[in-house]
Amino acid sequence: MNSSAFRIHRSLCGSLWGDHSALSIMDITLNAERFFERLERLQTDWTSHKSTVWGGADALCIPLGAVGDEINYSKSSSFHLFLFGYEFADSLIVITRNNFYFMATAKKCGMLEKDLVGKHDTIKVHCLIRSKDEGQNREHFNELGNVVRKGGGKRIGSFLKAEYEGNFIPSWLRFVDQSQLEKCDIAPSMGLFLSVKDETELVRFF
């Protein structure tokens, strides 16, 4: 998808979920039903085709760096729009079976705590608050690393060729490089998954 197509995709998501451009972050309400419906669809696709399409990933990691004024297509941004209808810049998502981990500032975590935490019987949403204290952030990184290793896991799927603005996501990537976790590229897998539109997305094209 090129930048022009991504601009259209972003516009469509804004229409589907509401125009957020004039709202502060705490004025936005996330659609819990749609969030969990789409997350369940991702989990089903991933666990059903883990060893083939998804490269044997034991966990999925979707980092999104700082977002500037220029609109550039990235699978991370596209995934945020698909799942939230909103881009949470400078945030980190780690997904394991029936668990969704989100690390970002307190204000961004507050949105998920308000609208998503405790709203599903099976999938648990966990928020980790990013701090100015690098030691605290490192503790959260260790927690996420242990989440991947739980049950004997060691392989984390992410977008290995992507470049990220800011300092937060690069610090996470350095942590992963220094850990004993294996990495695999899920960019093609995620692109294929996002190319299959659900009814809510398709209705905007007719």
What report would you give on this structure?
The chain is an alpha/beta fold. The chain is 44% helix and 16% strand. The chain contains 8 helices and 6 strands, in the order ααβαββαβαβαβαα. It has helices at 3-17, 32-48, 75-83, 106-115, 134-149, 168-178, 187-195, 199-202; strands at residues 59-64, 91-96, 99-104, 124-129, 155-158, 182-185. The protein has a 6-stranded mixed sheet with strand order 4-3-2-1-5-6, sandwiched between helices.
At a glance:
With 206 residues, the chain is of the alpha/beta class.
**Overall pLDDT:** 86
Class by alpha and beta content: alpha/beta
Number of discrete helical segments: 8
Q: What's the main sheet like?
A: 6 strands, mixed
Order of strands in the sheet with the most strands? 4-3-2-1-5-6
Order of helices and strands: HHEHEEHEHEHEHH
Percent in helix: 40-55%
Sheet-strand content, in percent, reads 15-25%
Strands, total number: 6
Task: Give the SSE map.
Blueprint: H1 3-17, H2 32-48, E1 59-64, H3 75-83, E2 91-96, E3 99-104, H4 106-115, E4 124-129, H5 134-149, E5 155-158, H6 168-178, E6 182-185, H7 187-195, H8 199-202
Helix pairs in contact: 3-7
